[in-house]
Amino acid sequence: MFTSFEPKNTLLLGPGPSPVSESVLASLSKPTIGHLDSSFFVMMDEIKMMLRLLFSTTNDITFPVSGPGSAGMDTCVVNLVEPGDEVIVCINGAFGQRIAESVAKVGGIVTEVHSEWGAPTQPEQLEQALLKTPNCKIVSFVHAETSTGVRNDAKTLCEIAHRFGALTLVDAVTSLGGIPVCVDEWGIDAVFSGSQKCLSCPPGLSPVSFSQRAVNKANSRTSPIPSWFMDVTKVASYWTGQARAYHHTAPVNALYGLHQSLVDYHSEGKELAFTRHAAVSTELIKGLAILGLYPLVEKKYRLPQLVTVKVPEYLDEEKLRKVLLDTYDIEIGAGLGKLAGKVFRIGVMGNGARIENMQRLLSALSEVLVQDFISIKCKTEAFG
After folding, report:
1. pLDDT in tens, the chain (384 residues)
2. pTM passes above 0.90
């Protein structure tokens, strides 16, 4: 006999998802209505308005894609990149590499600009790549690299790209809501994010925004957009205008949740949310230092909402995460790619960015580290 699933009440302090508030959970359980209901259109318009405020943009094509952040990435790529387009992708972590792979899959010619994992893309690296790639159509990079905890200088990278006549495509999955994302001021042409990070909404929606330059590029293609579902020229007809054209059955209750998370976010205010993320992250790093644990990323490039911690030689990183989850009901993240086994990642995101959550984590870490120290000491004495 099957029974209902009852999840553990785990404190999510990994790279996402982040803890979902009671108000958002309550909104998800509201009665489902039709995705073409006129009252649902009103809510959709409010989501668009709140996302524009969060992205700091006036772009009309600003809406959540029905799918996770990776769907938002593919939406930006398939609309802007045509076969044969030369695209520069700045890579300083796992998610920059994903963009490069997505571009290649639709026939783009990729030039990869690599930086050390744990360091940002330097502006001169991009400038040199553009000098060598005079026909570059698009420059892409990750604003907040989730695999490393590094913040790239989006404003400067976008300025350089536009100086060379290229459009910009930016991953803001981890940055949106935790640090400023200024789409219009910085000249971002296409940007995608995710609902499950600093917005503390369940995963499954990917806010995107397209500038008029990006829309013009999509509309002037000489080859078809290689996706029916992600064709922004078709999806826009559902999200904009008076006469809403049916495109797909939208995830109604998931959009209730996003709407409520945005209401909660704007009730706090962007600047206060940024300050809270930074303050809580600072306290976490102070507490980690007392335990002999230190961030991978230099302070001036470090994200407040995602702290990547170097693993000391004596520590079994996989065992640490397992004990935290099994014994303390706290989830943190493993290292990815080149950093697997060398770091663990702590999310200071959305509703997770609370002092009491960091205190709970630090207390658990101290207990685990003491137990490991005693174990190592006993083994050393036994074989001494």
Report:
1. 899 999 999 999 999 999 999 999 999 999 999 999 999 999 999 999 999 999 999 999 999 999 999 999 999 999 999 999 999 999 999 999 999 999 999 999 999 999 999 999 999 999 999 999 999 999 999 999 999 999 999 999 999 999 999 999 999 999 999 999 999 999 999 999 999 999 999 999 999 999 999 999 999 999 999 999 999 989 999 998 778 889 999 999 999 999 999 999 999 999 999 999 999 999 999 999 999 999 999 999 999 999 999 999 989 999 999 999 999 999 999 999 999 999 999 999 999 999 999 999 999 999 999 886 555 444 544 445
2. yes
User: 151 φ, ψ to 5°?
Assistant: -100, 120
Q: b/e for 236-249, b at 16 or more Cβ within 10 A?
A: bebbbeeebeebee
Exposed/middle/buried for residue 164 (C-beta within 10 Å: 0-12, 13-18, 19+): middle
Contact yes or no for 208/202 (Cβ under 8 A): no
Residue bearing tokens 């940055």: 175
CA atoms within 13 A on the CB side of 209: 31
